[in-house]
Please model this.
Amino acid sequence: MHKDDSRVRCRVLKEALCEAGVIGQSVLDVAIRPGGVSQRLAGNGLSVTGLCRTQEQLDACSEAFESLPVTLQLGDALALPPGLGEFDAVLALDVLGESPDWQDDLQPLLGRLRPGGRILFSARAQDHVERFAVEKSAGQGSIAIAAVQLRQAADALGLAIRSVTPCCAMDHGAFVFPAEGRILTGQHWWQRLLTWIETDPALRDFYLFLEREFFGRMPLSLSPSFVAVLEKQPDAKGNQDWLAQQAAMNAALGGKIDFAAVAQMLPEPEAWQARLAAHLTTPRNRALFFHLWTALWGSAPDVDMASFLPPGQGQFLVEWTHKGMLDMWVTALARAWHVPDPFRTALVYHDVGLGSVTEYSGINNLLTACLKKEG
Model:
């Protein structure tokens, strides 16, 4: 597994959201890169101006964009070159939020926007940090922006929030996998599972379905990042409505989790449920979904896993959940019984504690006994 695979997947998701949100014919990309969204926009006939921080980056982009309508200059979001003019859209992927003054950093970029133009940028979601109690050290080196801060900035700068789409949940989400007590997306086995996306079309389609058709429609609190599309015209009421919608979705996800709780956030709930069932016909997809759903809703007071599938099709989720809980209970028992005295003392031989030696066989014997009793 390449350690940057997850970042590449996340970047692709962000670029697709930006491509869909661009309007007009002229684009300023303040962090242009070969093979990125601006290359596709230019290929579709848009006029693109791109900024490169270094001469090395500029040379690489010059070669990549040689036959496309792209103008390249040295500069970046915090050091705009003079004489840029105005554009219909400004792209700022992964460049804002590097300092607490991210709102101030927006203003020079807005000066390059025509009235009614759009600025599109990505950032970390503070709502996600708060929902899953992420420690500061677990961040990605950038400031996280809360929904309320985004609305306040839009109002103060005279902008209209056109869309704010969550993303990158499956690669960088902070939800904890109960069996290990650790963040799911930080586990090597989970990242290894995701690497199959490159060679397994069914898994790739399922990954995109969950990112776009589930996490992309949920509140910011479920995903670690987002792409915001803001338009250069004031809309205080629309911005407040957007924030109220975020609050309503979070409230719906604050109690029992079942399909009814999320259905109100999906445009066609029954069709979505049928598509989910179709994706779960392969073993790898079923395993991914079970582990993801277990971690995502791990802190909820009650979860009805089977309800997310059409009637009669979710029994395997119930069975897997039960077996997962049994496995955690048995493992905890096998690892703990020999720790206190008198067992700890009795299992010392030549000053070497032998209690841990019993764990493997203990887990096997306990699981065999429990499953035999259930069977």
About this structure: Residues 5-172+219-254 form a domain with the Rossmann fold fold (CATH 3.40.50.150). DSSP finds 16 helices and twelve strands in the chain. The two ends are 39 Å apart (CA to CA).
